[in-house]
């Protein structure tokens, strides 16, 4: 079939995706909804189960690969359904514009396990504009010698930005690693300090 013979506008395509998402949700065949949003960090992929936000991904991770992982580890019933993530998109927009300091979204830690889940569950306690070292986080979660494991947990956080692993630094104050790249981490920290930071990550 030659798709060029059946032109469809982006608006019509968006409406189609919305309709399919509603139908899938209504008949119980949609387990994971996803959408993309623009941000100062570049495009972000958001995914949610009925329980809550399960994944926030950076473009550098490869959205197709992220969706494949979700299908394998959470549910194969994954569909683009933007309306299901309107609240998350709105809260992220408020955060990036400096009008929100904490997220009020249900979270699903299905992609976190073991000690990593302990760390991911703790991270929202590090409040806006504040930072902790990997060593401090290890002590605060009751595993003071697990500094390297805390670093690994932060580097594999499935919910960056919303679960603020960007607020965890090395003991000397340097950035350490970040799933979205060090420029993205720096942008987030500067945002929370009220400092402008150039242009968006490309």
TrEMBL record:
EC code(s) of this entry: 2.1.1.63
GO biological process terms, semicolon-separated: DNA alkylation repair; methylation
Record domain Methylguanine DNA methyltransferase ribonuclease-like: where: 33-109
Molecular-function annotations in GO: methylated-DNA-[protein]-cysteine S-methyltransferase activity
UniProt cross-references to PROSITE patterns, sorted A to Z: MGMT
Keyword set, alphabetical order: Cytoplasm, DNA damage, DNA repair, Methyltransferase, Transferase
Enzyme class: transferase
InterPro entries documented for this protein: MethylDNA_cys_MeTrfase_AS, MethylDNA_cys_MeTrfase_DNA-bd, MethylDNA_cys_MeTrfase_DNAb, MethylG_MeTrfase_N, MGMT, MGMT_N_sf, WH-like_DNA-bd_sf
Recorded catalytic activity of this chain's protein: a 6-O-methyl-2'-deoxyguanosine in DNA + L-cysteinyl-[protein] = S-methyl-L-cysteinyl-[protein] + a 2'-deoxyguanosine in DNA; a 4-O-methyl-thymidine in DNA + L-cysteinyl-[protein] = a thymidine in DNA + S-methyl-L-cysteinyl-[protein]
Active site: 165
Subcellular location: Cytoplasm
Major location (coarse): cytoplasm
Domain Methylated-DNA-[protein]-cysteine S-methyltransferase DNA binding residues, every copy: 115-193
GO terms under cellular component: cytoplasm
NCBIfam families documented for this protein: ogt (TIGR00589)
Chain's role: Involved in the cellular defense against the biological effects of O6-methylguanine (O6-MeG) and O4-methylthymine (O4-MeT) in DNA. Repairs the methylated nucleobase in DNA by stoichiometrically transferring the methyl group to a cysteine residue in the enzyme. This is a suicide reaction: the enzyme is irreversibly inactivated.
Further comment found in the protein's record: This enzyme catalyzes only one turnover and therefore is not strictly catalytic. According to one definition, an enzyme is a biocatalyst that acts repeatedly and over many reaction cycles.
Protein family: Belongs to the MGMT family.
Protein name: Methylated-DNA--protein-cysteine methyltransferase
Species for this entry: Corynebacterium testudinoris
Top-level taxonomy: Bacteria, Bacillati, Actinomycetota, Actinomycetes, Mycobacteriales
């Amino acid at each position: 079939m030659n798709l060029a013979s059946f032109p469809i506008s982006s608006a019509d395509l968006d409406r189609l995706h919305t309709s399919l998402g509603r139908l899938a949700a209504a008949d119980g065949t949609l387990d994971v909804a996803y959408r993309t949003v623009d941000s100062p960090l570049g495009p972000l992929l958001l995914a949610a189960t009925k329980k809550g936000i399960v994944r926030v991904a950076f473009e550098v991770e490869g959205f197709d690969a992220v969706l494949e992982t979700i299908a394998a580890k959470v549910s194969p019933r994954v569909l683009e359904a933007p309306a299901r993530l309107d609240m998350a998109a709105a809260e992220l927009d408020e955060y990036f514009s400096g009008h929100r300091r904490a997220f009020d979204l249900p979270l699903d830690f299905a992609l976190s396990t073991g000690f990593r889940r302990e760390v991911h569950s703790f991270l929202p306690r590090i409040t806006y504009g504040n930072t902790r070292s990997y060593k401090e986080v290890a002590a605060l979660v009751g595993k003071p010698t697990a500094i390297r494991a805390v670093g690994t947990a932060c580097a594999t956080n499935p919910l960056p930005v919303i679960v603020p692993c960007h607020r965890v630094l090395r003991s000397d104050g340097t950035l350490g690693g970040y799933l979205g790249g060090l420029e993205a981490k720096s942008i987030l920290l500067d945002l929370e300090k009220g400092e402008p930071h150039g242009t968006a990550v490309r």
